[in-house]
Structure formats: C-alpha cells, structure tokens
Description:
The complex is a heterotrimer of chains A (802), B (164) and C (294). Chain A has 3 domains: 19-26 and 478-626, Aldehyde oxidase/xanthine dehydrogenase, molybdopterin binding domain (Aldehyde Oxidoreductase, domain 4), CATH 3.30.365.10; 33-134 and 198-275, Aldehyde Oxidoreductase, domain 3; 292-463 and 633-801, Aldehyde oxidase/xanthine dehydrogenase, molybdopterin binding domain (Aldehyde Oxidoreductase, domain 4), CATH 3.30.365. Chain A contains 20 helices and 29 strands. A 7-stranded mixed β-sheet of chain A has the order 3-5-1-12-9-10-11. A 6-stranded mixed β-sheet of chain A has the order 7-15-14-13-8-29, sandwiched between helices. Chain A has a 4-stranded mixed β-sheet with strand order 18-26-27-28, sandwiched between helices. Chain B has 164 residues and is of the alpha+beta class. Chain B folds into 2 domains: 2-76, Ubiquitin-like (UB roll) (Roll), CATH 3.10.20.30; 86-162, [2Fe-2S]-binding domain (DNA polymerase, domain 1), CATH 1.10.150.120. Chain B has a 5-stranded mixed β-sheet. The radius of gyration of chain B is 16 Å and the shape is globular. Chain B starts with a strand and ends in a 10-residue tail after the last helix. Chain C has 3 domains: 7-52, Uridine Diphospho-n-acetylenolpyruvylglucosamine Reductase, domain 2 (2-Layer Sandwich); 62-172, Uridine Diphospho-n-acetylenolpyruvylglucosamine Reductase, domain 3; 179-286, 2-Layer Sandwich (Enolase-like, domain 1). In chain C, β4 and β5 form a beta hairpin. In chain C, α11 (240-250) runs antiparallel to α12. Chains A and B meet through α1 and α18 of A and α3, α4 and α6 of B.
Amino acid sequence: MSSLGKFRYVSTDRRVREDRRFVAGKGRFVADIVLPNTKHVALVTCPHAAARIVGIDKSAALAMPGVHYILDGAELAAATLPLMTGLDTPNVPRRPLAHEIARYSGEWVVAVVADSRALAEDAAEEVIVDYEPLPFVLDAEQALESNDILVHEAHGSNVLLDKTFTWGEVDKDFAAAPRKLKLRVKWGRSSTVPIETFGVTASWDPWRDMLDVHASIQMPRFQDQIAVALKIPVTSVRVHHDVDVGGSYGVKRGIKHTILCGYLSRRLGFPVRLIEDRLENMRGGDAHGPERLFDVEVAFDDNGIVRSMKMRALENVGAYAGRSPFQLGKPVGAIVGPYKIQSVQYRAVAVVTNKTTQDAVRGFGQAPTNVALERTMDEVANVLGLDRLEIRRRNMIRHDEFPYVIPSGTTYDSGDYHALVDKVMAHTSYDSLKAERDALRAKGLLAGIGFAACLEPSGGNAMFEALLNPKIQTTTFMDSCRINVDGVGSITATMHTTSSGQGHETLVGTAIGEVLQIDPETIRVVRPDSLNSLPSGTPVGSRMAIMLGGAAFHAATKLKTKLTTIAAHDLGIPLERAGYDQGEVYDKNKPEHRRTWLDLVQIAWRSYHRMPADMEPGLAVSHVMQVPTGGVLPTADGKVQMYPCTSFEFHFILVSIDPVIGRPEIVKYRIGHDCGTVINPKIVRGMTMGGIAHGIGAALYEEFAYNDDGQLIAQTFMDYLLPSSHEVPDVEIIYHVTPSPNTVFGQKGSGESGYLGAPAAVANAINDALKPLGISTNSLPIKVSKLGDMIAAAQEKKSKGN
Amino acid sequence: MRIELDINGETRELEVEPRTTLLDCLRDQMQLTGAHAGCEHGVCGACTVLFDGVAVRACLIFAPQAQGSKITTIEGVTPGPGEMSVIQDAFCETHGMQCGYCTPAMVLVAHALLVDNPNPTREQIVDAISGNICRCTGYAQIIDAIALAAERLRGANRPVEQRV
Amino acid sequence: MKAAPFEYSRAADIDEACAWLAADENARIIAGGQTLVPMMAMRLARPTRLVDINRIAGLSYIRADGDAIAIGATTRQCDLERDALVARDLPLMAKAIPWIGHAATRARGTIGGSLSNADPAAEQALMAVTLDAVLNYREAGKTAEIKARDFFIGPMVTALPAAACLTGVRYPVWRGKIGIGFHEVNARRSDFAFVSAAVQVELGADGMCKRIAIGVGAATDFPMRLDSAEAQLTGTMLDAAAVKDAVTQALADIEAMDDLHASAAYRKRVAVSLACRAVADARASALGEKIHAH
Lengths: 802, 164, 294
C-alpha cells in the first residue's frame, strides 16, 4: 500500500512528545483529577473462597462520621444489568458486587462511600457480613472433570468453553509420521500488574443527564458497556480520554468499578471515586491473567520436520467469564508459530474456579501458547539428538513462501525468519555462546542456551469473538483520526482513546507529518471525549501503529488531496499536473507557479469563490479505518483470518544456575526483532525491553499463588515479585525490517514484543541447563526454591545411582 | 494535628490527621501530584521524594514525622514552568519511560544519585534505581538516561564542542 | 490502604518515650518505620499511639567504645553503610548492609528498629547474633542490657520489656588476622532472605582458626549460631571437608521455616551450603586471598 519510499520522519530517531509532561510529574493520571465534593469508596471483600452471603449489618458503619452510603450487591443487582460477557453464558452473570454468593476470596461484597478514603476504610471494617462458607474448587482439571462443586450452579457445569478445531488431515499426518512426542506445559497465573492501580471517578449531572467518567482505562466499547449496565443511553456517558493511564498492557478494563461508581454517583448526587488500593487491585480488581495447562502432541519425522500437532489448552479463568476465555482464541491466528506445521487439532477449554477473575493480558494468550510451542520444538530436537537451532531452521517458513496460509486459515503477511536468525547468529556466534556455556559448566555451574522463535500477531481485530461465540457476527474493527487545519494554518488532529505509555500522540503526529511533509512537532494531537469521538478500538492487540497510524495516514492523505485539488483549481491546471511539496502545491510544468500553505488556507477558509464547485469549505477531514484483511467471518470448519500482520522475534540467551541455590542468572540476552517498518525507534525499543522484563517476570518470579484454602497468598508486592533493575539483564536487540504489505508504512505491531518470546527462551535455557541432570521443568514460573529442590533431588538420585 | 512542613523550600502550615502519610499529604493537601501511589507499602518506589536530600518512600512516612526536614518533590527539582533539568531532558532524549507513572520517582532517584556520585558506573545506576519498579521499560532506557545526564552534567564545564 | 487512626507523639528524650509506652500498652515506638508503616497501612498493626524517637538527640551515633563499636538505636542503615569505622572494625556488617532492602529503605530504616522488629530474615538480627552484640535499653528511668543471643526469642518476638526502648548496640571488635564471609539467597536481590549465613574468623599466623563465629539467618524462627561447628572448627585449618561436616551436623536438627517462597528442605539444605561458603570466604579473606563469587 505504501508508495512513500524513503521516509522523512517515520523511522527517524525522534523524541516522544508525551515524555515532557511525565518527567516533570505533570502527567494527568486519574488520581490527580479531583472534582469538587468527590466522595471515596472502599470495599468490603469476601474472606472465603466461596460463601453464601447470609446477612449484612451496616448499622455500625453507617453511624460512623463521614460515612454517606453503604451499598450491597442486592441493591446494585436490582438496579443494574450484569456485565457484558464474551461467551454465550447467560447463567454466569458477573456483577460489581457479589450478589447472594461470593465466589472467590477478595471478591467485592459491599462498597462504603465516605468523605475520605481513610474514613471509608474505617467504616468498611465495621460492616458485618454473615457468611456461610461453601465448598470451592481451585484446580482447573478438577473443575473440568467433576461437577461435584459448581462455581455457578445455574450454569450446570464449570465449563464455559470446550471447542475442538481440526485444521487439515491431523489423523492421517499422525498415522504417517514415524515419530511422536507428548508434552505437558503449565503457565502459572500472573498478570501485567501496572504500577498504577485501576481508578475511576464517576460524576452524574442530573440537570444535563450526563455521567462524566474519568478512568484509567484501556477498554474497547467502554462507554457502551457502562451505559447498558446502568440502563442509560450511551449519549449520557461521557468518557474523558485525556486521562494518562499509568500502565495497562491489557488489564485496565475497569467496567465493574465504573458501573459501581456510576450507580453510586447517580444514587447519591455527588462525584464518587474508587482508586483501588494494592490489596483491592491484586485480590478483587479482576485483573489476573492466564493460568493455562497445555497438553501438546506432535508428529514428526527423523529429520525433525514437524508434520502435525494436537494441542489442548485448559484455561482456569477464575470465578467469572469476562473476556478472558477469548484469550484461548487469539492464538489460533499464530497456532503454528513461525513453522510449517501442516495440520493442527486445537481444543480450547475454559473452566471457572474459585479464583480471582481474569482480564486481557499483553499478547492475549499468545505468550503461554508460544511457551508450549517452543518447549515442544526443543524436545523434538532433543529426542532426535538434533541441534535445537537447526530444527527451527528446518521447520520455519521461508521468505519466498509468503504470504503464507497456516492451517487455521490465517495468512501471515510477510517475514524473513531465516535472515533474522542468521543476523542474530552472526552477531553472537553459536559456537562462542556454546563455549561460554561449557566454560560455566566446567566451573561446576549448570548452564544452558535458550532459543525462542515467536510471532506477534498484530493489528488487533477481534475475530476470536466470532470464532468462539457464533452469536457474535462482528467483523468490523475500526480506528479513526480527524484532522482540522484552522484559519491561520495550524493543524490539529484527534485520536479517540486513552493511552498507557504507547506514545500515540507521537504516532499520530509522525504519520500526518510524513504524509503532509510537515514537521510533526507543529501538529497538535488531542483526545476528545467519547461523545466527540469517532470509532476507536483502543490500544489492544498490538494494533495502534497499524490502525491509528493508518487512520492518521489516510486522513492526512485526504487532506493532501483536498489541498492539491483546491490549488489545481486555483492555478487553473488539471489535477494530475499539480505537485505537492511540503505543504505547497505547484504546477509540475512550471514549478514557480505555486500556492503556499497559507494561500490554500486562505482559499479554504475565506475565499469560497476560489474553491472548486461543490467542495466543502474549510480543511477538515476524517478517516475511519477498517482493519486490513478484516471483514470476513470464520468459516464453518473454524478457519479464520485473525490479525493482519505478524511480527517476528528470535531470542537467543545464555543462563547459568548455581546448582545449590537454584537461581537462574541470565548471562547473555540477544533478540532479533522484525516488526516491519519501525515508526519510532525509541518507542519500539522500549516496548521490546519492557516486554522482555515482563516475560522474565512471568518465567521466573511472578505468580498469583493460592493456598489450599483458596486464599491468594501473593497479594502484596512483597509476595508478587515484579522484576527490578537487578533482575533484568542487558539486552542487545538486532533489527531486521520486513515491511508488511498490509499497512501504510509497512509497519507491524510491537506492543507485545519481547513478552511473547522471553518466557519460552528462559524456559528453554533452563531446560538446556538441566539436561545433564536428566531432568526438565515445564511449569512456569520456575522459582528459585522450586528449581533448587528439583536439582537437589536429581543430584541425590544420581549419587545414589552411582 | 497542626504541622509545619518545609516543602521545596517553602514552609507550609497544615492540619493533618497523624495517620496521613507524607504521600497523601503532598498529593491531597498540597496538590503536589508528581509523587504517585503505587503500592502504599513501600515496595514500588513510585512515591519517592527527597527527604533532606535523600530518596525515600513518601508512603512510609507519616506527615507529622516530616516536620523539621526538607522535603523535595519532582515539582521542586523542575527548574521552571516548561523548563527541564538536565536529568529530565536526558530522560526525554532516551525515552526513559512509557506511561510516566514511575518517572518522577526515577528522576528524583537519579537526582539524588548524581549529587552523590557524578560519575556512576552502569552497575551503580542499576543499583540506585533497583528500589523503583518500572513495568513499562525494562529499565534499559532509564539507565541510558541517567548515564547520559551524568555525562552531560560532567561536561557542563567542558568546551562546547566536547560536550555530549 | 490507610492506617487506622492513632495519636502521634514526638518524644523529646528517651524517658519520655518510655513513659508513653508505659502509659498505653498499645503504643508503639516508630523509628524508621520501614516495616511498621506497611503493617499499619494493611491494618495488620494498629497501635493507638506512635511514639516518634527519630528526633531524640544523642540516639544516632557510631563510635569506638573500648573494644567495641557502639551504635545508637536510631542510626540509619545508610549511615552504617557509609561509615569508615564500620567498614574498618565491623567488616561483616559492612558486607551485609547492601543486602538490607534498597537504598530508599536503608535511608530511613534504623538499626534499633530492625533489631526490635526481629524479623527472622533481617540481616541486622543475624549480625547482632553472629557478632555477639549487646543491646542496651531504657525502661522506667533505668538502663539495662541484654545479649543479642538472649534478645531474639521468636519470629518478630524479642525479650525486650513492653515499656522499654532500645538505645544502642555494642559490637565487640575482633582484632588480628580477621576474615569475613556473608551469603544470602532471596528471590530478588532486595527481598527478604530465604537463607543467609554470616561468618567471622580470626586466624593465627600459621593460618589456624583461633576463633570463629558462624551465624545462620532466615532459616529458623530467629537467627542462630552454629555453636557445635564453631567448637569443632576452632583450632583447625578450616579444611573444606571438615567445615562441611561440622556445619551439616550443626544444622541437622533445625526446624526450618516453610513458606510461599522457599520450602523447609530448601532452607535447610541451602543453609549448609551458604554457611560453608561463608566460612571459606572468611578464611580466604583472612589470608588475603581474592574471593571468587559463586
């Protein structure tokens, strides 16, 4: 699509315009916005894994100073509709406050409204809830196999989704293959855990019928969901997009928080705010991520060519559905990774348990799937005694095979996997890293090399919805941009969502500047509220460079066309003779014959008599962009065109482990990254580095661990361990650019990069290190003590054997 | 109770409950919102301020305890409206942030570090920021920013052509 | 996450602080507050009164006192970290301090606060036990002292009387051919230890061990000394096999803690290794050898 050739601003090392306000502490985060007369919410949470709410005594709490209201689940359930769910599971209703039954420890039961957060917490302690503890289930396999304990009795089972797809001749390929291998891989429950918790202020104005919402959100169709639940028109919900979001990476959804505060504000007549504290966030913020068990079986030949794969993914979604089961669907679009596996059977199972509800997490299920795939590739190599890099090279799709259709029906747009792998290996030779590994081993340490070759599907349609719930017929996934040139010639562009650090204002400015050949810094980018916005899908699915960048490109192109048309008319030349150069339009036959930017602004704004007939006055344009390759429903046999672009990342790392202590240290970290045309190098590098740090966390440190009583025991930052600067190694990134044919600049997504491969690379390196002991681990996170105990047991066995 | 605090060189008299943390006091009573609440239990570092020049957690100090000390916030190290310090500018140059939530704290930690040690090694920078969790960046561009700021500050007295 | 209400008093002197404690059994001393405040924020601690001793004159000091180094109760960890006297005369403590939290918590945390808090994993508790520190406290207008080995009696429990306030700690200084070793394992470097081991040794001119102190922290309810191993190893050349035997025996019957982060088996096993490594490091450093990082 791109015909720009060499770029003027795209791909140049430019500053990120958002940064100035942040370094001065002048970001505008939700907790910084205080409306007059705002009251504060604190929550009473369920101390049991499952319990019937027998009675609630509010009297003591209500009598306390500064307390305005105490809301329970019964009142809220009577006045509002349950939250929208993705799957067709009407008997699994989800509400902001537990109604009759609380289904996980930490679930919100009562909301207290008081003059200050501290007073609300004081009163929350005095609300007496009478619980009747109920039996509970925590384990996904138990929830799947037995109906003895039902999380939602009316649903009749704990299974929300159980769907098997067969793409290609799986049975035939398995029968024909000389070798087979089975593997079980576990991805522990973790999440993105932004440093800012979720927060919202809702303010109802009864004289304007308007609910103003300031929230730290990253949620598609946010205002629609709030309005439906509160039973008010969407035109009565005004979501302010000019709120800086303090990190999200998927989880800042906040529907239940906002329904709760919206209801309270309407009920009480003043602004109501809920800024989760860290305990509320970790236990009941419904922001946990995937907890997934994979059973993988592959069929392959003696050369290590993988012919077919069967994968069962069992997801423990927690107590309520939300969108989380869809995280089993997105990986369908990259189910074979970068490999030419010709047939696949995929069984996606989601069960409810008595754990905290999940929401979307960076990669939307792709990172766990990549671990399963990449662990499997390593084991195939190990079984055959082949080199693990060589086996990847043999199976990878070749550059000349793109566009490449995978068995599940998605076309990969472009890639040059072998070239990037070669580039990384040229940078740090395999032999030198092996020598380094062997030197560590000679010192008595365990040491291993890890690879991960992973895809980042990007461009974010949500075709997994229609794939997993046939009642959903959505194939439209938009983003948009509006540009206005004012009467003195300055440009203002709009975007229609919040951002959580992705640099979208910079993106819009760069894309428009590129098209108009005008310094991006002169272009103002603003975020109108939801009532003034065009459709936007919000920053999900690594889509904004593609979709917001694309919408800005197209809007700017429309503006450029309009400017050229006006100028050609005014110059009295045919349109095709008019040339555009940095805001001016000239006669190609007589270049000194031209109209300047200000000439054109003058004509468009004030000289209608010089405008082409029937042209709108002014210089306002907009573009609503549909996702490239979108617009097609899944086929009856479950084939689907998922995201339009696939970025590629190749991790190559060295890990050493002190065998006594069991702590893996990442000694070397190299990553090759190809996300097509890089729009802003600083932003892309940051995304990848942050993704790697997050991936290291998921692989080694982070887990929402529960005890046998169903209590979340990693609920503070002392127990849920986020990597600090000590735990993140130096990383060298090697770039390669394979432009996408589907996007305006050839760009692909990078918002999930690093995270999609780091856990797999770390797991593979640790397993390589463990190989001399004859043991392996496929359960993430691989924590120090667990690994230490495993190594000790293996060593003991070995010494006894000797 | 009535307390008197020295914030960014200005003395302010305030009425607080003893349980008010310095963080809440700065944010809610003085509208100094550059210090952020992340965990409120002393782990994430987003609330960092300088206490007599030393980086501390504002969520782990009750406001009355701060009486008699000099408190400096991000607002206090910003040279002027719209004007950035060398350190702040270096963070922009390397894009040492994404969402910006941990950023003021990182800038203050960098400030305290470079006052103490104008020529830190990479390891010393890593160590200095290890008490501040950033979930966006993986730290690399923050480390680069502090190294760049150190280099520029050291170069301030060099001939122009030798500066970074 | 806001603390429950309390009264605040800034004590002018130590006796005033003790008087506040005597008057209200739910009053608590606050020094650095780096452990107490998070507990209060989560409402796991609910003192009715906080008695702030941070501004009491004369409680923050590091000075030579005969054959010991005396350290005041409100001396901050960061002051110890930078102190030349500590670096010279208490090298074991100097080595352990960077493992305490991070710079921002060391900037506020005090030695007296850490000892009074008695976290089984606290480095300062291990230092006090290993170095045979003597703790001084004030109660009802009287000064008293207690040995570190008698001070810690359970996880987060000490023998300090309810209305007493620590005033300072004395650490005997070892002279001669001294070597030290310290090892700690945790999830992330600034986290609480799963296990830690501290060793100080004095060698004779012939390299023979004249005196040795071996402490293990975080494995049990409070830091322990490996007395039997110390007795066995004194007078030996600290041969690696002998050290391993002695340490293994000394730790054979401990009841190690088990939690989310590390199993009891892990703690027990790794305690042996860390103690051995710390002895080896101590011996090497006394001999002036370069210590290889593990």
